[in-house]
Every structure is written in C-alpha cells, then in structure tokens.
Specification:
1 helix, mainly beta
Length: 491
C-alpha cells in the first residue's frame, strides 16, 4: 500500500543491472561524496543514535516511510530492514550504509545527516549507487521512537491479558461468540477462545499457501477473510476450533484479486479491493455461508494510476465511507447497491487515507479518518448531504478537529463507540479519545504497548498497535505487531 519497497533491499536487488562493473573507481555513496558543506551538523553531538528511528525518504517529491534500528553491535543493526555494513555516528558525523552484491553488480544505499534539530530528530541526504555510481538521490528525515514526554506505561486502562502469536505479525482482530479471530498476514489467521478474557487460549489456526490475509469478520457462524490473491474467503466456523473452508469469491480469475478492507452491514458485505481494478465488491450475505456478488463499484472520479484506490471503509445510514488512499476520504450512497452514487470526497496533499470510523455525535454526522503514511493525523470531518436541483445528492465534508501524536506515528485502527474513539496508534499504542466535542478531541486514557526490546522492532514503518475492537463485552481487544493479541479493560 505504500512505496516502502523503493528502498527495500529485496525490491532493489531485483532491479539491479546484470552487467559487469565498469565504475569501480566511483564511490558516490561513500560519506566523502555527500554534499554536507552547507549543513549545520552541530546538533549531532547531542543525538543518542542507538534505538529505532522511523524514517521518511523523499525521492522526486514522493515520500517513502521506513525505519532503521541502531544497536551498539553493528552486526545487529538494520538500515531499512537490511544489515548495516558501515556506521559513522561520532561527533558531528552521522552516516549509515548497507551493501549488496550480485554476480556482476553491487549496490550501496547510504544516508548522511545534515542537521539534528533535537536529540531525537534529524534530517539529511539519501543516495543509492549501482557499481559505485549514484542512480537515486533524495532526502530523509527521521524521528527516534520513544514514549511521549510525561507519560507512564498506562493511564485509565489496564492490560488484562497478552497472548503472543506462534509466528507472524498480528494485524487485526474480530471478536464474536467468545472467540477472537486474529489475522497475521502471510501466517493467515489464529483463533483464540476469549470467553475468559484474562486467559485467551489458542484453539485453531489456518495458514495460507503463498497468500496474505488482512481483515476478518464473522456473521453468525460464517467467517469472512480478505485475501491478497483470492479476494474474499468464506469459512464455516460453526465449530470455531475447526474452521472449514467453503469458497473464495468472486471465484477463479486469470489474475489475483486483492481483498483489503471488509465491513458487513446487515445483509450486505463490502470488500475493498485495491487491485487490479481499484473497486468495491458488494455481496449479498442474507445467507451468510453462500454469499452472492451484487455489484462491483469503481469511484469514477478516482485514478488508480495515481494511487487512488479503496483500502478500508465503513457503512453508516446507507452511506459508504471509503479510505481511498491518495484520493482521500470518499462518500458513496449505497441505498441502492445495484447503482451506488458517488457524492464527494475530502482530499489533501500526500494522502494515504485508510482507517475510517463514522457516527452521530449530537446532531452531526462525524467521520474520523486517518492516513497511514508519514505525517499521519486523525481528522474529525463533519459530513452533510444536500440535494441539488436535478435531485442528485452531494456531500459536504469539512474538517472540524484533529488529533496527532507526531509525523512518524500512523493511525492503524479506529473503533467508535458512542462518543469514545479507540485508536490503534502504532508505536504510541492505545489511545482513548472523548469526541463529544469533535473540534477538541480529549485523550482520556492510553496504554503504551511499544517496547524497543520486543522481537521484530525496527524492521518496518508500520510497527506497534495495529488493530482495535470493542465488541461490547466490557473489554477492548487489540493486536500488536510484536506482542500479539492484547486484551484491555478501562478503569
């Protein structure tokens, strides 16, 4: 969903030329080649370099969020999820590099600091070289991950239980009938008995073959899962301890169909599909175990070639609110599912709109939207719909409030219950906000779940609390990329 592969070793190695090294004398990604003469590097003397740094690399005006992790032992340090090969962070110098070799070519990625406005912030230059010759140049900014100033581990909420997954990264959870269904990307789904929330017990797991699973939903005794390759998967969970696959929808195609977001509203299931057609598939689930496809809807004003595709969404009062990535938040009337009507959008620069929650607060419809990239913030958007002279509808969307934890802390999950908004805020953990006045969000509770010592830290920009659900049983269920399934209770 983001462009982090631009600087990831695996993708870069696939694009390396297979020609002999004819530029052995060039070393344009080594520290002396960087243009730092006009930089004010005095602040680097105060930087505590070791730790996890969330990073945004900008190439040709396009940002790529990623991360690096520095440890005292260079052999254990990572630059953009790959082993560090050179490090110079002494005094006013900050330089990191990583190298890769192929039969006839070599690759080096290097970053050099230009300024450090604070001990936990820095900016600088990025370069990539093939056979010593630079082929990509840009800038980077980085923020060290640390607990917000003045906060303890928690306030207003307590951790009831924690269950690490057997493997993989926990990305989302759905709770139904005393069971929690935890999706874990390439590791599939894990099912936990949470009838006693203080003692979750794993009772089943389903592992896909060369696939990635994102979201899940349970209606009655039927489990729905969104798949990167097969669209919508349907399982019978009349016995949650033995899920039984029923089908994949919309069925066999010549190319993979990606399912991402998933929401069930009454007898309608909406699946957001970013690729290959950037569409929303709407199913009839009046017979939950036998869904039938009703409509494939594409927002006509969007352009998938510009990264404008649906990722997540919710339905409220017959309106579908879509986190439509670079397009922003889109509003669609789905009262007639055979002919959805696009009403309008809320767009903004560098949008990576994903997570959405909607409800009525006072007499206003408020949509909460957040992006997933660098500079993520939670927006409170007032939405009203009017009828034009030709009897068509148009949505009026205005930002009335916002909440943010910093440019390197994306929002990965939202659940609205009444006027309380539960936020999965990646490395800033669980945030509970009073939204009774959407113009002035007020934090009333938090739990800092992120610990630098947990396995897997520093390998990706999206790291930390990844999903949150409040099913109404008195508990908050959340997923954490390293820690697994977490169950909380408000105090």
């Amino acid at each position: 969903m983001n462009r982090s592969l631009v600087v990831m070793a695996g993708a870069l190695l696939l694009t390396l030329p297979g020609c002999p090294n004819t530029a052995e004398d060039k070393r344009e990604c080594d520290l002396p080649a960087f243009k730092l003469s006009e930089c004010d590097r005095s602040g680097f003397a105060e930087v505590q370099a070791n730790g996890v740094w969330k990073t945004n690399v900008t190439l040709d005006g396009v940002g790529t969020p990623t991360a690096f992790f520095l440890k005292p032992e260079q052999s254990q340090s990572l630059l953009f999820a790959t082993p560090l090969s050179e490090r110079n962070v002494e005094g006013e110098t900050f330089y990191l590099a990583t190298d890769y070799e192929r039969s006839f070519s070599s690759l080096r990625i290097g970053i050099a600091g230009c300024e450090a406005p604070a001990p936990n912030q820095m900016k600088g230059q990025f370069r990539r070289c093939v056979n010593g010759e630079m082929d990509l140049e840009g800038t980077f900014e980085a923020v060290r991950v640390q607990r917000p100033a003045g906060e303890q581990e928690s306030s207003g909420v307590e951790l009831v239980s924690e269950m690490a997954l057997p493997r993989g990264m926990a990305m989302d959870v759905f709770v139904s009938g005393g069971y929690a269904y935890v999706t874990a990307l390439s590791e599939g789904i894990f099912v936990y008995d949470v009838k006693d929330p203080a003692a979750p017990r794993k009772v089943a797991e389903v592992t896909p073959s060369s696939d990635t699973w994102y979201r899940s939903w349970v209606k009655g005794t039927t489990l729905y899962i969104t798949s990167q390759r097969e669209g919508l998967l349907v399982y019978d969970v009349s016995n949650p301890e033995a899920p039984k696959r029923l089908m994949a929808l919309p069925g066999s195609t010549t190319t993979a169909l990606e399912g991402s977001g998933l929401v069930v509203d009454g007898d309608r299931l909406y699946m957001m599909s970013p690729s290959p057609r950037a569409e929303v598939l709407i199913f009839d689930v009046s017979k939950p175990a036998s869904p039938s496809l009703l409509t494939r809807y594409y927002v006509p004003q969007s352009d998938a070639q510009k990264g404008e595709f649906p990722v997540e969404g919710v339905v409220f009062n017959n309106y579908l609110y879509l986190g439509h990535w670079a397009f922003g938040l889109a509003v669609v009337n789905v009262a007639d599912v055979a002919s959805p009507k696009y009403l309008g959008r809320f767009g903004y620069d560098n949008a990576t709109s994903r997570t959405v929650a909607v409800g009525t607060i006072g007499d206003r419809t408020i949509a909460f939207e957040a992006s997933e990239g660098w500079g993520s913030r939670l927006r409170a958007l007032e939405v009203s719909v009017s009828v034009k002279d030709d009897m068509s509808e148009v949505a009026h969307i205005n930002e009335v409030g916002r909440f943010e934890m910093g440019p390197a802390s994306p929002v990965l999950g939202l659940t609205l219950v009444g006027t309380k908004l539960y936020v999965a805020h990646s490395q800033d953990g669980l945030r509970v906000l009073d939204m009774s006045n959407p113009s002035t969000p007020r934090q009333i509770a938090y739990y800092n779940t992120w610990r630098e010592t947990d396995s897997g830290r520093g390998r990706a920009f999206l790291d930390g609390l990844s999903g949150v659900k409040v099913p109404g049983d008195g508990y908050i269920y959340a997923t954490e990329t390293s820690r697994g399934l977490l169950v909380f209770r408000e105090q």
